[in-house]
C-alpha cells in the first residue's frame, strides 16, 4: 500500500514579454543612418516601422499569454479529474488491505488476539498526501483543498474495537443480531442495557439506532457513527459448533511430541503437526499425488519440508521410500537430514552443474520405473509396493530453481503428470505459488499447504481461504485437500530427532542411487575401451552401435572416440565420438590449461588406432603455409589434419593471416574430398568467433575463460564451472570428459624445404643487411667471390662469368634501384636471391604481384627467382650457418 502522489500543480501564470525596446529603436536608428548616407529624406519613412513593430509585438505577446492561460487551466482541470479517480482507486486498495487483515466474522481470530471488527465508518486515510502551499489563486486553492479533503477522508474504513467489556444499547432485530455476533467473539464480554439507562463514562458503549447507524462512544473520545456489519445466523451457528468441539492448534509443536501422539492416535499418512483435536497427517498416495507449499520468508515453509521428510523417513524403511532434497536457498533447509539412509541426494544452487544433472536424471528415472512396472505386469506401483520404492522430491524455493533452469519446466510437468502411478511425489515450496508454478504442474497438486501469505498471493493460491492465512503466526499452516481446510501447527525438528531416526534404520543396507555417478576427472583410452566392451542396461541410441576404435573400411575416417559423455536424461554414459564424414571440421575451444592439446592427442590416437593417417600442422607460419599448400595439391587419403593453437598461428602471421586462413580452407576441402577431416584448437571462443564462423561445423567447448566467454561460445547458459578439470567440457550440449593424454605429446609434422646452393654461375643477392649476409657467405662459400658493388651486375649481363671464381653480388634494395638498368638486364639470365629482405622488395625490384610464401629467417630461408620461373622459398645452408 502506497501513499497518494502530491496534488496537481496549480496553473502557471503566463510569462509577460517585455516591451520590445530594441525592436523599436533598431528601425529608427537604421533609417537615420541610411538617410545620412544616401542623403534621401524618404528613407526616414522606415522609422514608421518602429511603432508598428512595437504594437504587433505587444499584441502577439498578449495572444500567447491568453493561450497559455487556457492551456494551463485545461491541464489543471484534467489532472484534478485524474486525481479524483486516483483517490477512489487508492481508497479501494486501502479498504481491501484492511479487509484482508481484519476480515469480518467471529472465526477470523480464534486465539483471542487482535481486535473485533464492528463495521465501517468514514475515517482519515493513511494514503493522503501533504497539504501543498498556497498558490495565491483562491479558486485554485479551493479546488486543491477539496481534493485534499477527499483524499484525507475515506468514506468507509473498518472500525475495530479492543476485546473486552462492551455495553450495547438498543432493541429490535439489528440489536439482537449484533449482540449474537459480539457474544460469539472470543474475549468479548457483552452487557445489554436499556436505551434509557445511563452508561458509565469509562465504558465502551454501542447505541443501535437503525440497520445502518450505530453510534460508538469510547471513553474520552468523540462519538463515531458506524455502519454495522452483520453475519447470518447460520454462520454464527457453524462457528459456535466448531468452537465447542475443537480447540485451536498449540503455538509450538516438537517433532518428538508429534511422533508419539501420531503413533498413539494411529494417524493415517505422514504426520506433520497438530491441530486442536490431535495429530494431523497427509497422505500423498491418496489425496496427492503432489503438494504445493506457499509461504513468505519466516512463515515456517522450510520447517514443514523438514518435518515432512523426517516423518516419512521414520514411517518407512530406506527400501520403501527415497528422499531427494532440492534447496535453492543455499542448502540450509535440509541441513542434517542428509545423514538419513533414505536420502539419495541434495541439490543446491551452489553447484549448478550437479543441480542440472540430478534434476534431468529424474525424467530418466521415470522411464526406468515404467519399464519395471511393465516387466512386473503392473499398472500402478500401489498394486505391489515392494516392486519400487516411493521417491519423494522436496523442493525449497521452486521459483528460484525454475529461474536458474527454465528448461526444467517440462521435466517437472512430466513428473507431475506421471508421478502417481510410478510412485514419485513432488512437494514444491515457494513464496508465490500462483505465479511460480505453471498450470501443467499445479493441476496435479491436489494438496495445498498455505502459511502466511500476502492477500494477493493467498487469493491466487487458495482462493476463498486467503483471509485465514493473512496474519498466521510462524509455523501455522492451512492444509487444504479434498476433505476441506484445517489449521495445523507444523512440528519443529531438532538434531536429536534426526539422530533417533537415523539410528532406527542403522541396520538397513545402504540404498543404491537411481542415477549414475558423475564423470571422472581422468579417463584413459584403456578405460574407455573397457567401458565400451562392458554390457549396458540401456540399448545405444540410433547411430551409436558402431565400434569407434576400428579401422576405416570405406576409405574414410571412422568415428573417433575421444572421451566419455554423460547423459543424465538417459541415465547412461557413452563414448564421445567425432565423425568427420558427417560432423565436418571440429574446433576445440577453451581457456589455457583446459585440455585443448589433450583433446587433439586423443583424436590423433584414435585415428592411428584406426590405421588412418595424421598430419599435425607446424607451429611456424612459414612451415604451416608450405604444408597447407602441399595438402591442397596432394591430400592424403583418410587422414586427420590437426592444428594446435590455430588462432595464435594466425596472429603470428600478421597481415598474411587472411591468406593463411584461405590456404587452411583449401587444404581442409581437399582433405575432406578424399575422406579425411580437420581439427583445430583455439583459445577463447569469444575472441575467435570471426575465425570460427561457419568454418567448423562441430565444436568441443572446454572450460571457458570466464562466464561471458562460456555464454558466447554457445555452451549451456548458467553452467560455467571455473573449477572444471582439464578435458571437461561440452559436446553438442552434453557434458564430456576428454581422454587423458598421459605422457603423450603432439609433435608437428616436419616440413622439408629444398636447399639452394650457389652454382658456378653468378648470383644477385638482395638484402637489407648486406654486410652481415656478406660475412656469413664468405665463411660458408670460400670458393665464391663476394661483391658489395651493385655496379658489378653489368659484368654479369649475358650470363657469363669474367672472373675465375663465380660471384655473389650483394646489395641493399636502394643500391639495386640505383643500378636499375644492369640489374634488370642481369636478372633475365642470372639467379636472384632475396635474403633477409621483405616482400615489398620483391614487388619493387622483381615486379612480383602474388603473395610470397612466408620465410623462417632463423633457418636460412630465402626467396629465389630463377630465370624464367617464379619466386620460391628455399633454404640456404650457408646463410643459416652464419
Automatic annotation (TrEMBL):
Family annotation (InterPro entries): AAA+_ATPase (IPR003593), FtsK/SpoIIIE/SftA (IPR050206), FtsK_dom (IPR002543), P-loop_NTPase (IPR027417)
UniProt keywords, alphabetically: ATP-binding, Membrane, Nucleotide-binding, Transmembrane, Transmembrane helix
Top-rank taxon: Bacteria
Gene3D superfamilies: P-loop containing nucleotide triphosphate hydrolases
Stretches that traverse the bilayer: 20-37, 42-59
Residues given in the record as ATP binding sites: 295-302
Keyword Iron: no
Matches recorded under SUPFAM superfamilies: P-loop containing nucleoside triphosphate hydrolases (SSF52540)
The keyword Transmembrane helix is assigned to this record: yes
Record-linked Pfam families: FtsK_SpoIIIE (PF01580)
Region Disordered: start-end pairs: 100-140
Domain FtsK, first and last residues per copy: 277-460
Protein name: FtsK/SpoIIIE domain-containing protein
Native source organism of the sequence: Microcella humidisoli
Amino acid at each position: 500500500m502506497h501513499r497518494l502522489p502530491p496534488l496537481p500543480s496549480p496553473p502557471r501564470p503566463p510569462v509577460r514579454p517585455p516591451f520590445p525596446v530594441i525592436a523599436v529603436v533598431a528601425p529608427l536608428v537604421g533609417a537615420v543612418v541610411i538617410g545620412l548616407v544616401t542623403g534621401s529624406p524618404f528613407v526616414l519613412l522606415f522609422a514608421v516601422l518602429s511603432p508598428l513593430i512595437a504594437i504587433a509585438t505587444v499584441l502577439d505577446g498578449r495572444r500567447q499569454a491568453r493561450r497559455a492561460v487556457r492551456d494551463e487551466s485545461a491541464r489543471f482541470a484534467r489532472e484534478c479529474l485524474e486525481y479524483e479517480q486516483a483517490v477512489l482507486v487508492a481508497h479501494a486498495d486501502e479498504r481491501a488491505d484492511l479487509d484482508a487483515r481484519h476480515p469480518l466474522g467471529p472465526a477470523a481470530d480464534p486465539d483471542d488476539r487482535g481486535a473485533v471488527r464492528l463495521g465501517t465508518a468514514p475515517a482519515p486515510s493513511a494514503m493522503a498526501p501533504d497539504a501543498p502551499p498556497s498558490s495565491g489563486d483562491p479558486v485554485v486553492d479551493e479546488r486543491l483543498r477539496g481534493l485534499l479533503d477527499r483524499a484525507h477522508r475515506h468514506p468507509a474504513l473498518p472500525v475495530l474495537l479492543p476485546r473486552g467489556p462492551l455495553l450495547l444499547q438498543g432493541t429490535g432485530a439489528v440489536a439482537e443480531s449484533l449482540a449474537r455476533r459480539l457474544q460469539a467473539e472470543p474475549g468479548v464480554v457483552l452487557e445489554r442495557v436499556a436505551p434509557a439507562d445511563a452508561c458509565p463514562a469509562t465504558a465502551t458503549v454501542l447505541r443501535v439506532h437503525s440497520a445502518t447507524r450505530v453510534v460508538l462512544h469510547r471513553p474520552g473520545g468523540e462519538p463515531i457513527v458506524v455502519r454495522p456489519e452483520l453475519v447470518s445466523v447460520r454462520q454464527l451457528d457453524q462457528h459456535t459448533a466448531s468452537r465447542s468441539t475443537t480447540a485451536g492448534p498449540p503455538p509450538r509443536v516438537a517433532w518428538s511430541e508429534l511422533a508419539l501422539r501420531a503413533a498413539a492416535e494411529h494417524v493415517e499418512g505422514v504426520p506433520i503437526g497438530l491441530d486442536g483435536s490431535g495429530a494431523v497427517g497427509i497422505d500423498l498416495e491418496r489425496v496427492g499425488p503432489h503438494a504445493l507449499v506457499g509461504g513468505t520468508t519466516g512463515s515456517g515453509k522450510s520447517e514443514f519440508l523438514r518435518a515432512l521428510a523426517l516423518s516419512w523417513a521414520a514411517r518407512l524403511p530406506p527400501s520403501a521410500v527415497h528422499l531427494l532434497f532440492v534447496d535453492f536457498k543455499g542448502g540450509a533447509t535440509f541441513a542434517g537430514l542428509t545423514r538419513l539412509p533414505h536420502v539419495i541426494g541434495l541439490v543446491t544452487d551452489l553447484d549448478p552443474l550437479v543441480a542440472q544433472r540430478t534434476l534431468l536424471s529424474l525424467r530418466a528415472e521415470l522411464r526406468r520405473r515404467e519399464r519395471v512396472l511393465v516387466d512386473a505386469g503392473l499398472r500402478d506401483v500401489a498394486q505391489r509396493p515392494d516392486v519400487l520404492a516411493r521417491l519423494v522430491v522436496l523442493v525449497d524455493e521452486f521459483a528460484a530453481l525454475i529461474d536458474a533452469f527454465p528448461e526444467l519446466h517440462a521435466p517437472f510437468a512430466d513428473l507431475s503428470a506421471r508421478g502417481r502411478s510410478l510412485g514419485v511425489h513432488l512437494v514444491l515450496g515457494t513464496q508465490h505459488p500462483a505465479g511460480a508454478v505453471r498450470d501443467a504442474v499445479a493441476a496435479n497438486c491436489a494438496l495445498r499447504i498455505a502459511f502466511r501469505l500476502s492477500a494477493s498471493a493467498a487469493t491466487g493460491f487458495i482462493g476463498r481461504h486467503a483471509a485465514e492465512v493473512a496474519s498466521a503466526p510462524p509455523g501455522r499452516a492451512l492444509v487444504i485437500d479434498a476433505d476441506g481446510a484445517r489449521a495445523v501447527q507444523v512440528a519443529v525438528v531438532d538434531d536429536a530427532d534426526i539422530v533417533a531416526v537415523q539410528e532406527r534404520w542403522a541396520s538397513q543396507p545402504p540404498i543404491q542411487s537411481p542415477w549414475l555417478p558423475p564423470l571422472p576427472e581422468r579417463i584413459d583410452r584403456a578405460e574407455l575401451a573397457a567401458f565400451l566392451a562392458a554390457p549396458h542396461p540401456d540399448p545405444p541410441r540410433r547411430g551409436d552401435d558402431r565400434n569407434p576404435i576400428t579401422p576405416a573400411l570405406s576409405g574414410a575416417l571412422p568415428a573417433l572416440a575421444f572421451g566419455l559423455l554423460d547423459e543424465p536424461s538417459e541415465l547412461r554414459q557413452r563414448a564421445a565420438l567425432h565423425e568427420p564424414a558427417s560432423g565436418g571440421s571440429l574446433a576445440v575451444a577453451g581457456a589455457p590449461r583446459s585440455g585443448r592439446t589433450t583433446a587433439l592427442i586423443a583424436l590423433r590416437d584414435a585415428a592411428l588406432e584406426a590405421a588412418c593417417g595424421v598430419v599435425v600442422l607446424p607451429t611456424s607460419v612459414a612451415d604451416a603455409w608450405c604444408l597447407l599448400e602441399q595438402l591442397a595439391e596432394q591430400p592424403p587419403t583418410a587422414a586427420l589434419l590437426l592444428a594446435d593453437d590455430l588462432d595464435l598461428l594466425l596472429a603470428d602471421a600478421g597481415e598474411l593471416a587472411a591468406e593463411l586462413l584461405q590456404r587452411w580452407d583449401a587444404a581442409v576441402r581437399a582433405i575432406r574430398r578424399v575422406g579425411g577431416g580437420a581439427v583445430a584448437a583455439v583459445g577463447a571462443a569469444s575472441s575467435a568467433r570471426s575465425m570460427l564462423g561457419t568454418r567448423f561445423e562441430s565444436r568441443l567447448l572446454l572450460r571457458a575463460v570466464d562466464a561471458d566467454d562460456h555464454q558466447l561460445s554457445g555452451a549451456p547458459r548458467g553452467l560455467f564451472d571455473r573449477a572444471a578439470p582439464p578435458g571437461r567440457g561440452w559436446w553438442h550440449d552434453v557434458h564430456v570428459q576428454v581422454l587423458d593424454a598421459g605422457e603423450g605429446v603432439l609433435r608437428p609434422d616436419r616440413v622439408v624445404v629444398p636447399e639452394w646452393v650457389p652454382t658456378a654461375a653468378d648470383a644477385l643477392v638482395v638484402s637489407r643487411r648486406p654486410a652481415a649476409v656478406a660475412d656469413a657467405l664468405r665463411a660458408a662459400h670460400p670458393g665464391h667471390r663476394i661483391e658489395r658493388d651493385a655496379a658489378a651486375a653489368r659484368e654479369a649481363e649475358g650470363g657469363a662469368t669474367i672472373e675465375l671464381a663465380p660471384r655473389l653480388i650483394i646489395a641493399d634494395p636502394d643500391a639495386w634501384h640505383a643500378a636499375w638498368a644492369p640489374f634488370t638486364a642481369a636478372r633475365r639470365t642470372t639467379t636472384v636471391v632475396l635474403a633477409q629482405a621483405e616482400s615489398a622488395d620483391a614487388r619493387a625490384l622483381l615486379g612480383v604481384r602474388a603473395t610470397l610464401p612466408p620465410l623462417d629467417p632463423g633457418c636460412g630461408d630465402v626467396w629465389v627467382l630463377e630465370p624464367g620461373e617464379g619466386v620460391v622459398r628455399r633454404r640456404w645452408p650457408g646463410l643459416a650457418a652464419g
